[in-house]
Write a structure and sequence with these properties.
- By secondary structure, this protein is α+β, with helices and mostly antiparallel strands.
- The strands form 2 sheets. It has a 4-stranded antiparallel beta sheet with strand order 2-3-6-5, with no helix packed on it.
- Helix 1 packs across helix 3, helix 2 packs across helix 3 and helix 3 packs antiparallel against helix 4.
- The chain folds into 2 domains: 96 residues, no CATH class; 64 residues, no CATH class.
- Helix content is 41%, strand content 19%.
Length: 188
């Protein structure tokens, strides 16, 4: 089972550092991993609506919401990273909304949200693991090696891994169809 320590160890191996065994173990690698892992993981989880990290939730009213542009305020889930869509009742589409801090504002009385969540590493598919490891290697490289050109090469490779992971993830769903498109209907 993959965990955060294994992902960091793989990233360190990519830059020639093999002594990492656990977070904050007093070593430079352990301290660096403890400081950078969570932010890097959340950033890579946030750049795309990964199918494995999507969740639905009915949102809860904020009691002390100060009405402004919108009539209602809702608390975001504790594992929230990125909004994908918001809908009325149990639907997750169709509501106009705004995120303001940790509150979702809208004019709907009851809403559900489809969102990108912070999920356990054990749920990361192999294609995402590789993209995250590549990003971690790029993050760890400069502080450990002080080699900016190597760090830049690793950052470019990380972007390539991320593009590839996004393409694979996009194929995990039924492709969108053009429904009600007048030019297509005219061809029949």
């Amino acid at each position: 089972m993959t965990d955060s320590v294994e992902l960091c160890a793989r990233a360190f191996a990519k830059i020639g550092q093999t002594s990492f065994e656990r977070f904050a173990d007093g070593s430079l690698e352990g301290d660096l991993a403890a400081k950078l892992y969570g932010g890097c993981r959340d950033r890579v989880l946030s750049v795309h609506p990964w199918n494995f990290a999507l969740k639905r939730a009915r949102l809860v009213h904020v009691d002390d919401f100060a009405e402004g542009d919108y009539a209602y305020g809702y608390a975001l889930p504790s594992d929230f990273l990125r909004a994908v869509s918001v809908g009325y009742g149990d639907a997750v589409r169709g509501v106009v909304y705004r995120l303001l801090g940790d509150v979702l504002e809208c004019d709907a009385e009851m809403v559900s949200m489809l969102y990108g969540a912070r999920v356990e590493e054990a749920r990361f598919p192999p294609f995402f693991q590789e993209a995250l490891v590549a990003h971690l290697a790029a993050e760890f490289c400069l502080p450990l090696t002080e080699n900016s050109s190597r760090s830049e090469v690793l950052a470019r490779r990380a972007q390539q891994f991320l593009q590839q992971a996004r393409l694979i993830d996009a194929q995990q769903d039924t492709p969108l169809a053009f429904d009600g498109f007048s030019l297509l209907e005219g061809r029949e």
